[in-house]
Amino acid sequence: MGDTAAESTPRRARGRPRGWDDKTEQNTIKSLDRAMAVFEYLSENPGLALSEIATRMGQSPATIYRILVTLEGRGLVEFDAGAQVWHIGSRAFVIGARFLRRTSLVERARPFLRQLMEETGETANLGIVQGANVLFVSQVETQATIRAFFAPGTLSPLHSSGIGKALLSQMDPARRDRLLGHDPLEAFTPHTLTDRQALSADLDRARALGFAEDREEKNLGMRCIAAPVFDIHDEAVAGISVSGPTSRMPEEAVPALGRAVAGAARNLTLALGGTAPA
Amino acid sequence: MGDTAAESTPRRARGRPRGWDDKTEQNTIKSLDRAMAVFEYLSENPGLALSEIATRMGQSPATIYRILVTLEGRGLVEFDAGAQVWHIGSRAFVIGARFLRRTSLVERARPFLRQLMEETGETANLGIVQGANVLFVSQVETQATIRAFFAPGTLSPLHSSGIGKALLSQMDPARRDRLLGHDPLEAFTPHTLTDRQALSADLDRARALGFAEDREEKNLGMRCIAAPVFDIHDEAVAGISVSGPTSRMPEEAVPALGRAVAGAARNLTLALGGTAPA
DNA sequence: CTTAAGTTTTTCATGATATGAAAAATATAT
DNA sequence: ATATATTTTTCATATCATGAAAAACTTAAG
Predict the structure, then answer these.
(1) pLDDT at position A227, please?
(2) Nucleic acid strand C: bases within 7 A of protein CB
(3) Fewest CB atoms less than 10 Å from the CB: which of B89, B109, B141, B209?
(4) d(CA A61, CA A69)
(5) Residue A112 near residue A240 (C-beta atoms within 8 A)
(6) Which of A32, A99, A232 comes nearest B67 by C-beta?
(7) pLDDT tens-digit profile of B129-163?
(8) How far is residue A183's CA from residue A193's CA, in Å, rounded to a whole number?
(9) Could you tell me which of B219, B188, B11, B16 has the C-alpha nearest to residue B123?
(10) Which domains does chain B have, with CATH numbers?
(11) CB under 8 Å to B208, separation ≥6 — which residues?
C-alpha cells in the first residue's frame, strides 16, 4: 500500500551503526506490524465483519479479534453493533488530525514540488484559490538559465493560468460562474481565452485529461501545465504546475509533462488524505 | 448514520458468552496496547525525542525505539531528522480521516458551512458529540487575516464551547447531567460558566433563542455562535457554529449572526431528513 | 585533535505472551 | 427444533517482544 510513505527516510540519527543499508528493518515488531496492517486494511475497507477480515487477510479469526478488541479499547476502531461490522474510530481521527497541525500545505507540498522539478527540469509551482484569483504560494525553480519566473505571492486570474484552469475544471458550475463573475474576461496575450464557450470547452478537456494547459495565455513565450490537488473533503483546494519557455515545452512533450504533473498532484492529494481521481 | 456511537459500546455480538460484564478486557493484546499508548502519547506531545518518550512513559528505550520504527514503516509516525524528534505521520491522518466518511454528515454539511462562511465572513465549524466532548470534524475558514484557529480533530468540553452548549440545550436533563459528570466544570477563561445554575440558565436561553453563544468562555478574545442540527430521529447529533475574534463579533451583530447560524443549521437538518424546531 | 557526555541502535538470553486449533457460546435461518 | 454461521474463549506451544548492556554514533568541550 503506502508506496508514498517509502521515499527512503534517510534517518541519519545519532547512533546508526554499520549494516544499515542492507537489512532495512529487522527492528520492526512483527506483531505490531501485523496489527497495523489490520488497522490500515480496515480504513481501506470500512464496515467489514471480523470473519471477513480474517479470511481476506489470511489470519486466524482469534488473532484479528484480539487486535480489534485491543484497538477498540483505545477508540481507534469502533464496532457497529447493529451491522456487526468494524470501522475506524473517532480517536484515530483525533490522533491523525495532529498531523495537520504540524505542517502547512506549503511545507507538505515541498518535497513533491522538488521531485517534479527534478523530473521535468522545469520550475514547479503550487497555487491556491484566493477570491477570484490563483495565489502562487510556493515554487521550486529550475536550474536552467532561462526561467519562467513569477515570485510566490503573485496573483493571477483564474481563467488565465494553468492552475486556475485546473481548479476551475473541478468546480461545480455554480461556483465556477460565481468566481468568474460577469465582467468580460481580461486578455493578457492574444492567446488568452476570453470567450466563455471556448474556456468551458478547454476546462472540459482539462478534466478529461487530468491536467490543464496554459499556452501562452498569460505571458507570451511561457507555457504551463497544471493539475488539481484534492483535500480530505475531496475538494480541489490547490494546484501544482510546471512552467517554462515554450521552446522547452513543445507539443510532443506535453503528454509526458502532463503525466508528471498529474502524478505529483496525485501524490500530494494522497498525502493530504484526499482521494485521487481515476 | 448512527447515533452518537460513543456511549459505551454494549457489544452484543453473536457469540458473547457468559462472564462478559465482569472482566472486561482480558482479550487485549498487551504489547499492542502498549504500542498504541505510545502512538497516542506522541499525538498529545508532538516533537519528542526517543529518550524523552522512553523516560516519560517509563519504558525501555529499546522498546520505544522498535515501536516507533515499526510505526514509521507504515507512515503512522515520522522522524524529523533535523530536530531528531518524532511526530504523527501522514498515514495516520489518512486513516483517521476515514472516520469522517462513515457518516455522510460531513459531506452533507460542507456546502452549508461554506455558505455560512461567505454570509458571515467568519470561520464556520461542524462538531459532533464524542463522549463528554465536542469533536470538531470540519470547518471552512474565513479569508480574513485574523482567524480563530482550532483545527479539525480538536476536542473541547461540552460546557465551554458554543456547539457543546447548543447540543446540551437540546438534551433531556438525564443525559445532560450524565455527560457533564459530577466533577467541577473546568474553567478555561474567567468567562467560562463553571456554575451549574448559571450554565443551566444559559442553556435555557439558548433553547429559546435557537442558538447558543460562547463569549470568550474557552479562549479569550474569541467568540462563537452555534446552533444544533437534528437527524432523522430528531436527535441533536451535531452543531454548526461561526467563530471569530470578539472585535468582529460585537453585541449588536449577535442577532444577525444567530439568525444566519440557525438558518444554516436548519438547512442541514432538513437535508438530513430531520425536522427543524419552530 | 582528543576526550567526554549523551543518544540511538544492536546484540543476546530469557521469559512473557501472541498465536492458531479447536471447542464453547451465541445468533440467525430454515 | 435443528442446522448453519459467526464470534469468543480455552489451552498448549513456540514465537518473539523485552530489557540490560554494549556498541555505534553525534555533538560539545577542552
Answers:
(1) 97
(2) 6-11, 16-22, 24-28
(3) B141
(4) 12
(5) yes
(6) A32
(7) 888 899 999 999 887 766 666 678 889 999 999 99
(8) 14
(9) B219
(10) 30-93 (1.10.10.10), 103-272 (3.30.450.40)
(11) none
